[in-house]
Amino acid sequence: MICPKCKNENTQVVDSRDIDPRSIRRRRECERCKFRFTTFERIEPVRLVVVKRDGSTEPFNRDKIIRGIQIASNGRIDEEKILDIVDEIEQKLIESRDSSVTSRKIGNMVINRLKKLDEISYLRFTSVYKNFKDIESFEEELVKLKK
Predict the structure, then answer these.
(1) Across the beta sheet with 23-30, what order do the strands follow?
(2) Which pLDDT band holds residue 129 (cuts at 50, 70, 90)?
(3) Cβ–Cβ < 8 Å for 42, 21
(4) Which of 26, 49, 110, 119 has the most CB atoms within 10 Å of its CB?
(5) 61-64 contacts, C-beta under 8 A, 24 or more apart
């Protein structure tokens, strides 16, 4: 890493800390001028393609999943837990080694995690995801949830 102050190429890492499962913060010191600076390393995201219900495709966007869960939970699930859910889903998709995934599969992964975590958020997310048309659809899902 090049020192931002004197442009020397020889620097030493003096401290490393994990920020999250995919990134590391490093404190570095220049061997010449002793200037200390911070760098961040992040894993380059895998390029996943999402196949939507209508057959169209778009790049995987974890922010869309985060927003969907935030809307469904309406504050019932804390932000860190939402990020954990999305990290877990993204990791499973990467481990599958498929370059494309259906939106249905992603939706089902979210539903399965919300069902275990918060029933209200689960129902809200499911009602949009499954496109409930009437109150009977809610009632049917509620009966399934109670079993």
Answers:
(1) 11-20, 23-30, 36-42
(2) confident
(3) no
(4) 110
(5) 62/86, 62/90
Residue 102 has what pLDDT?
96
Spans of all domains in the chain: 11-42, 49-146
C-alpha 65/C-alpha 123 separation (Å) is: 16
Burial class (CB in 10 A: 0-12, 13-18, 19+), 35: middle
Q: Would you say residue 22 has pLDDT above 80?
A: no
pLDDT of 44 over the 80 cut: no
Distance from chain centroid for Cα 98:
17
- Per-residue pLDDT, 84: 93
Q: Which candidate, 85, 11, 97, places its Cα nearest to that of 48?
A: 97
Nearest to 126 by CA among 116, 140, 139, 141: 141
Burial class (CB in 10 A: 0-12, 13-18, 19+), 126: buried
Contact 48, 68 (CB under 8 A): no
